[in-house]
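User: Before I run my own analysis I want an independent prediction to cross-check against. Here's the chain; please return only the structure tokens and, at the end, one sentence I can use as a sanity check.
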Amino acid sequence: MDRIAAATRCVAAALADEIRAGEVNDADLTLIQRELDLDTPESTNVRIRHLQSRVDDLAAYTEALEEFIDDNGTAQSIIEEVENEVEAVRGELGAMNDDIESTKDECALAHAGRQSRR
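Assistant: Structure tokens:
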């Protein structure tokens, strides 16, 4: 008798694992419920299917988000990269302004030199 009880527990555990994993098709699950007299109201089944669909959608979204982060980094790293680029552009603009001011000074000196020769 112990071997039969142990085998029954193994089959039940395996069936429970397959049901939890969603590996039992709906027709078989309905038959099991009916045979075990565990009829679940159809509204509950509809809610469960809806939740399973939402979980599947969330899993797909999560995978896409993980791929995006792998390719582009986190929002923080993207912001830091943009900030570094902005600082580099500011530095280049500062150097250009210095060049412009220097050119203005040279032009003013050249103009003053011409005026003094006259």
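Sanity check: The first helix runs from residue 2 to 20.
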